[in-house]
UniProtKB/TrEMBL annotation:
Positions annotated as active site in the UniProt record: 290
UniProt similarity note: Belongs to the peptidase M14 family.
Organism: Potamilus streckersoni
Keywords: Carboxypeptidase, Glycoprotein, Hydrolase, Membrane, Metal-binding, Protease, Transmembrane, Transmembrane helix, Zinc
Stored InterPro entries: CarboxyPept-like_regulatory (IPR008969), CARBOXYPEPT_ZN_1 (IPR057246), CARBOXYPEPT_ZN_2 (IPR057247), Peptidase_M14 (IPR000834), Peptidase_M14_domain (IPR050753)
Protein name in the entry: Peptidase M14 domain-containing protein
Positions of the Peptidase M14 domain: 31-320
Ranges that cross the membrane: 6-26
Cofactor(s) annotated in UniProt: Zn(2+)
Length: 426
């Protein structure tokens, strides 16, 4: 138990001894919360909602600040088969502070709504939501309130832009991987996330992969991913649920985005972006949300940001329940971890089963052929139909290849069998 947890617990005990009623988490105010206030909020949430929260740190910043994540959902401390993991990451650029507060208010909203709002309750009963309020606490600590532009506080304590710091699949990224970046990389490789968004400021738009070009010959225009249709759907889900992002192409001075969305490279290219890394390394469908024209507006504007983003933050995550899901197992129904699952006709991306043999594939309504393969097993294809508003359950069973199933199961072994019989009778 750390110091904050210790003090919180003794404070509650004293209140009970004095006969003071202990209520749940106090109403969250609309202000910018420093690191101590943020940690008290998170530990308080974890203490008062123990059945639906799990507070953990994925690592530390350069200055030794914990990178906290609050996971929310029914039986969140246990593995629930085929329950998808989703995540939000705020405040990657320290001076883009609106998302930091929106993440806190989103946590507060989910916790207060569980058990009273049927839609939220049903969602949390079937989804594990992981929220990292800030990925860059060191940068936020030196940012300047009221500064709408500029770079003070943008980078981490070592002076590196964390959204240019991930390994890049198309271009060489010479930037040394920072502590914060390494922590996120380890996290996403261990958790099997299905859907994600990271948040920024300085514009108002939903940006989807790719952020860079996978060909040296292309230098302009959109960089289209194999799942471009799904990414556009995800981006539009956010902007059309937002109070104003999709209503006008000019959301901020100088910007022009139809329906409030853009392909990353079509806007501007970056190397080492987090959304491309999520998609290409672990098959997590991530987009980038720019939440505010001003990077660090005065707190008086925070209530309107919350009202505009509240529905969008929730509705976006519900999209994790589209497409197909299931188990990939062997012939004895044993789960196969790290099996590859792809959609025939789409360029293969790194979609693999979890350590429990689970897979999720976000898809729009239509007919598809899924292909599953694993080392030592025969590749298997199955046809599925995805309907609107409901996820298709499709388990896939793989049969072992080679001699493991006996000579008679594969015609390729027949000559060897005949040769063996001849040798016996010679």
């Amino acid at each position: 138990m750390n110091t904050i947890q210790y003090l919180l617990r003794w404070n509650i005990v004293v209140m009970l001894l004095l006969g003071i009623t202990v209520s749940r988490v106090a109403s969250l105010d609309f202000s910018y919360h420093n690191q101590n206030q943020l940690e008290i909020f998170l530990h308080n949430a974890s203490f008062y909602y123990p059945d639906i929260t799990d507070l953990y740190s994925i690592g530390k910043s350069v200055h030794g600040v914990n990178l906290w994540v609050l996971a929310i959902g029914k039986d969140i401390k246990s593995h629930v088969p085929l329950r998808p993991n989703v995540k939000y990451i705020g405040n990657i650029h320290g001076n883009e502070a609106v998302s930091r507060e929106m993440m806190m208010h989103f946590i507060d909203y989910l916790l207060r709504s569980y058990g009273s709002n049927q839609t939220v309750t049903n969602f949390l009963n079937n989804t594990a939501v992981h929220v990292m309020v800030t990925m860059n606490p060191d940068g936020f600590n030196k940012s300047i309130l009221g500064m709408c532009d500029g770079y003070i506080g943008r980078d981490n304590a070592n002076g590196f832009d964390l959204n240019r710091n991930f390994p890049d699949f198309f271009k060489e990224n010479k930037s040394p991987v920072q502590l914060e970046t390494h922590a996120v990389i380890e996290w996403i490789h261990n958790q099997s996330f299905v859907l994600s968004a990271n948040f920024h400021g300085g514009a108002m738009v939903a940006n989807y992969p790719f952020d860079s070009y996978n060909s040296t010959s292309q230098t302009s225009g959109a960089s289209i991913s194999p799942d471009d249709d799904v990414f556009q759907h995800l981006a539009l889900t956010y902007t059309r649920s937002h109070a104003s992002m999709s209503l006008s192409p000019v959301t901020c001075p100088g910007d022009h985005f139809v329906n409030g969305i853009t392909n990353g490279a079509s806007w501007y290219t970056i190397i080492g972006g987090m959304q491309d890394y999520n998609y290409l390394s672990v098959g997590c469908m991530e987009i980038t949300i720019e939440m505010a024209c001003c990077k660090f507006p005065y707190p008086s504007q925070l209530p309107q940001f919350w009202q505009k983003n509240k529905d969008a933050l929730f509705n976006f995550l519900t999209r994790v329940h589209i497409g197909a899901k299931g188990f990939v197992t062997d012939e004895n129904n044993n789960p196969l971890p790290s099996a590859r699952v792809c959609v025939v006709g789409r360029e293969p991306v790194h979609f693999r089963t979890s350590k429990y043999g689970e897979y999720w594939r976000l898809l729009l309504p239509g007919s598809y052929t899924l292909q599953a393969e694993a080392n030592g097993y025969l590749t298997t294809t199955v046809s599925i139909v995805v309907h609107d508003g409901v996820i298709t359950r499709q388990d896939i069973k793989l049969m072992k290849s080679g001699f493991s199933k006996g000579f008679f199961n594969h015609a390729v072994h027949l000559p060897l069998l005949l040769l063996s019989l001849i040798m016996i009778f010679l």
